[in-house]
Design a protein that fits this description.
It contains 17 helices and 21 strands. By secondary structure, the protein is α/β, with parallel strands linked by helices. The strands form five sheets. The protein has a six-stranded mixed β-sheet with strand order 1-3-4-5-2-6, with helices on both faces. The protein starts with a helix and ends in a 16-residue tail after the last strand. The relative contact order is 0.08.
Length: about 575
Amino acid sequence: MWVSSLKLYMIKIKGSPALTLVIIFSLLFSVLAAPLTVINTKAEAANNKAEATAFTRYARDLTTLAQQGKLEAVNGYDAKINRTIQILSRGQQNNPVLVGEGGANATAVVEGLAQRIAAGDVPENLRRARLYSLNLDALLKGVKTTSELELRLNEVLSEVTSTRGNSILFVDEFHQFVGTRAAQTISETLSSAAMRGDLRLMGATSSGAYDEFIASDVMLDSLFQKIRLDGDFNSAEESASEEGVNGAEDFVGDKVSADLRELMQSAGSKEARARIILQTDDTNNPELRKLLRSNGVKIMGVMRQLGVLDVEMPVSVVEEIAVNTKAKHLSLDRDMAFLGHIDTTTGALAASDTGLVSNSLGTVTNTALDGTGVTIAILDSSIYTGHHSFLGKDGNKRINVNVDFTGTGMNTDDPYGHGTHVAGLAAGSKGKPGDSEDIKYLTNYSGVASNANIINLRVLDSKGMGSSSGLLKALDWLLVNRTKYNIKVVNMSLGAPAIESYKNDPLCRAARKLVDAGVVVVAAAGNNGKNAAGQKLYGQIHSPGNEPSVITVGASNTFGTDARNDDIM
C-alpha cells in the first residue's frame, strides 16, 4: 500500500528530478527505519527489565514505599526508632541490630524508620539515606550452593552501595548472614561493606542468637550496636550496654548550662544578649529556625557535622528556646586559652629516641616511629610555617593546610608562639639534610613524630585567647576533611573551664565525634587542682580534656607551675 501512495506522491511533485530522488530516499528511510526503532525499543526495555529485576527481586525500597504511603502508620515505638536514628547518625559503630523475640516489633521499628526518613524527620546526615529491606524468601528461593547465594547478595550490594554510603540495608534473621553461624564468605561480604562505609547494615535477630553468633566475635561486636526490643517501647532510656564505646550519646540533666543560668539570673535587663552554643540534632530544622527568628536570635555560625549552632540571643529567651524539643542543650560560648608546659610535665623529648636495634647477625634496624604517612592537626595559635623544623626528610614543607577560625585572619608567623611550640613538640624535625652545618639550627632537638604532615588550624589569637565557637568550627572542619588529608591525630593544648558534664559539653561531644570517626584526639588537662590553701579551684580538668574518649595529657595536679617536684596525684 505504501508503494501506491509513493507513486501518487511522485506524480504530484513538481520540480527537478534531483529533488524527487531526495524526497523518495527520505520516505524510504522513514518507512524502513520504523520497524528497526520498534525492535530497538523492545530490546532496551528487555535489558532494563533484566537489570532492574536483579535488585527488585531480592530487596524492597522501604523509603519509596513510605513516600508513596504504602506502609502502615507506626505508633508506640518512638524510643526505639529514635535510638536507631541516633546510632545510624554516628561516624562509627553506626550499624544497629534490633534484638528481641518479637519479629513484629522489629518490623514496626524498621518501617517507622523508613517513614521518618521519607518525611525528613531525621538528622541532616540521614536526609538523603535510602532504607532497603532484604527479601529473604526471594533471596533464598532455589539456592543450592553458598556461591549462588553470594552471587545474588552481591547483585543487591552492587546496587545498594552505588549511593556512596547513603544506603541502609535491613537484614532480618541477621545471624544467618553475619556471624559465626553464617557462611564465612557471606558474613565477610556484608561486614566488609559495612566496615568500608559503603553502606550501613541494620539487622534483627533474637537475643540468644546475637550473643552466641555475633557478640562472640570481637570484631563484629565492635562493628554493630545492639538495641533491645524487649520492655517498655515508650521509655526513652536504654541500658548502659547500648551506649557502647561512645559512653554518652544522650544529654543529661538541665538543658541549660550552670554558667548560662547564672548569667540569666544576673542579667540587668531583658535586652541583654549573649553568645551561646546551641546543640541540636538538625541545624536546618524549620521549626527551630522559625523559633529562633521570632525571638530575635542571630545565627553567627553553623557546624552541621557537629549539630551545633553558634548564636547570639537575648538572655531572656533562653528558657523558651530550651523548652523546644529540637534544642538539645544551650551553653555559653566560653573563652578558650592555651594550657602550656606539656614538654616539662610529660617528657616528650625522651619519647623521640632513634630506636636503633641490632639483631644477632649485626643488622641494625631503625624501629623509631617518625610519623611518616600520618597527618597531625594542631589546633592552637597558628604555626610559624617558615621554620626549618617543619621541613621533611626530603626538604619539602610538611605544613599542608593553614586555616583561621579566630575571625582575625590567618597569620603563619604565629606572633603568640604557643602553636609553634606545640607543633615542634609533636612533629618538629631537625631540618633538611645539610642543616647541621648551620649553627643557627637546633639540630639536636626534634618532635615525637618528626616526619608527620601537619594541618595548621588557628583557634587562638595573638594573645593566646579564643572561643568555644571558634574551636567547634575547627572541629567541624576536621570532620569534613579528615579523609581528604588523612588526618589521624588532633592535638589541642588548650581548653575551657569544664563547667558541665562531658555528656552535655559541646567541646567534649565534638571531640567524641572525631574519636568515633577514627581520629585520635589529644588534649591538655589544664588541671589547676587545689590552690596552696587546699581549696578546690573551679573547673579542675578543662574541657575537652575531661571527655573520656580523649587522651588527656598532664592530668596530675601541677598547681599551675612548670616544676614537677610540687606535682601530686
